[in-house]
Amino acid sequence: MSEDRKKQFELEVEKDEELRKVKEFSLNGWPICKGKMDKELKKYWMIRNEITVYDGVLFYNDRFIVPKRLRQEMLKLMHEPHMGIEKTKKRGRKIMYWHGMSLDIERWVTNCLVCQKYATSKPKEPLLVHDYPELPWEKIGVDIMEWKGRSRYYGMERR
């Protein structure tokens, strides 16, 4: 993270009331009981032991926690290569976190005009109807698969 981006995160954490409280709890200790917390902070209860503060920036394990005002910008950066929903989620989960990030990524990618324009529509393959054999072992199916980069053929068809 660049020094400018770090300062931006520090400032936004201080402006974000929710994350400012999370930062205070992380530094000074969390309440003993989840019930004594504000409603919006309860979502951090399960991960409270993994939240740390380093140079004014909040981290969840090794991922930085993104303040609300920077989330749109982070979504834009994550989705810059237009890799689709799952790859964008995977890319984002490596370095950042916020509650509801997966849903925000899904919405962002679904509404992306570039992705909509170039989305590959996979046509459904027609169901192949086979005639029933008259005798046992008259017809044998074949399964084709790839394993460790090599094609394998199992079974054979005989008539």
Automatic annotation (TrEMBL):
It is an enzyme of class 2 (transferase). Its EC number is 2.7.7.49. Transmembrane segments: none annotated. InterPro entries: Integrase_H2C2, Retrovirus_Pol_polyprotein. It comes from the Eukaryota. GO terms for molecular function: RNA-directed DNA polymerase activity. Residues 66-120 form the Integrase zinc-binding domain. This is RNA-directed DNA polymerase. It comes from Popillia japonica.
